[in-house]
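Hey all, quick one. A colleague (J.T.) asked me to put the iron/sulfur cluster job into the tracker so the inputs and the structure tokens live in one place instead of scattered across chat threads. No bug as far as I know, just bookkeeping. Sequence used:
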Amino acid sequence: MSIFLEACRSLLKPKATLRYPLGGKDLLQIPDGYRGKMALKREACIGCTICEKDCPSSAITIITDQKGKRPVFYLDRCMFCGQCKESCPTKAISFTKDFENASYDRKTMEVR
Ligand code: SF4
Ligand code: SF4
């Protein structure tokens, strides 16, 4: 097919791209099961430290607060492999669809 015909054919096809980020992230259809920023169900965490031990990126540190031991996640080290969620015996860890986590400030990349 000539390049001219191919160009005409492509012009008539529906758009394959989205106006992200200009159109906002509501345009995106993020699939269920997507591993974005993690969330901790604090009341479910028993402070067992398994997530910290199993994390291949050393992206979790266990701290102690007034309720006992709990993990802090460091997004700048996390590779979103999902191992912490798999390992957690109480299902305290989940992943949200939040993927816009780039930052110049490492402090904002902590999930507490
Ligand atoms: S998703 Fe993987 S890399 Fe990220 S904190 Fe969990 S175990 Fe570590
Ligand atoms: S593995 Fe689960 S219960 Fe254990 S410290 Fe991590 S989040 Fe808490």
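Adding what we noticed when we looked at it: The pocket of iron/sulfur cluster (ligand 2) is lined by residues 45-51, 71, 87-88, 90, 92-93 (CB under 6 Å). The chain has a mean pLDDT of 94.
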